[in-house]
Amino acid sequence: MLAAADYRLSQPELFRQDVIAGLSKRRKSLPCRWLYDERGSELFEEITQLEEYYPTRVETGILRENAPEIAAFVGKGATLIEYGAGAGIKTEILIAALQAPRLYVPVDISGDFLDQAVISLRHRFPDIGIWPIVADFTGDFDIPAAIPLKGRSAFFPGSTIGNLDHGETVSFLRRIHRHVGPKGTAVIGADLTKDTKVLRAAYNDRQGVTAAFNTNLLARINRELDGDFRLDRFAHEARWNSMHSAVEMHLVSLEAQTAVVDGQSFEFEAGESIHTETSRKYDVRVFSALVESAGWYIEEMWTDKRQSFGIFGLASLS
Fold this sequence. Notes:
The protein is α/β, with parallel strands linked by helices. The chain has helices at residues 4-24, 38-48, 55-74, 89-97, 111-124, 166-180, 196-202, 209-224, 284-292, and strands at residues 79-83, 103-108, 129-130, 133-134, 152-156, 185-191, 234-241, 246-253, 257-261, 264-268, 273-280, 296-303, 309-316. It has one domain (1-226, 280-318): Rossmann fold (3-Layer(aba) Sandwich), CATH 3.40.50. It is globular. The two termini are 26 Å apart.
């Protein structure tokens, strides 16, 4: 695992490498984690408040209604490890419901974000220890040996698991299984399959906030990597991929053009896109088979009345 200081220093280079590699592909794509710079994070918060965007609202409601049961599943004296730490209301709901939690371990790629999150959570929960880890949860890293193994539980809300492809999901589930140990548990939020009209509206809102969120990635490239993307020559598009049961976000070139990034030129044909995010939607049976392939089984499930979103309590098969 990279030390915090080393990891922070490497982020600009990681961003540059990912952008150059992604734009060099035959089918251009960029990792969705880079959508979340300061402006991107602000825009995403706006998205979560939109009428069309149900996942945050529905998942928060499930947590509120079932907090005692979820806390009982996690267990007394828990060490809660949150991947892609949020420090938002969902985190607070679960921590507040836990019985005598021992430790909260937020994991996030952004050291600056973690610094602010820790300050906020220490003020909100002064009696719980907090041990932040700066790491990319999609890559391999270790939990420090000084953190007790007993009572570890993974927390991964927000349907972020849907942003990973099949291989990444299995690797991630195996990694958190290793992190929490054979007696550990996991609480994971996943968006469930539903009418595609609802899905399209959630990722293509009338106010254009999601479009601004997506296009902001090009603005970030211009600012941080000396890019010259003309933002008005690209359009946000949300597509339904039935083969992968996923909503895909794309930035579509409106004309044939060339963009320069870090001194390198990239050609775009009219209609060619940059794939920026995938958000998979799960059938419960499919999700069950997926977690079992990584050594887990679904012991508990909490959902809303419409069964549009699921929070899954996972236990080890071994």
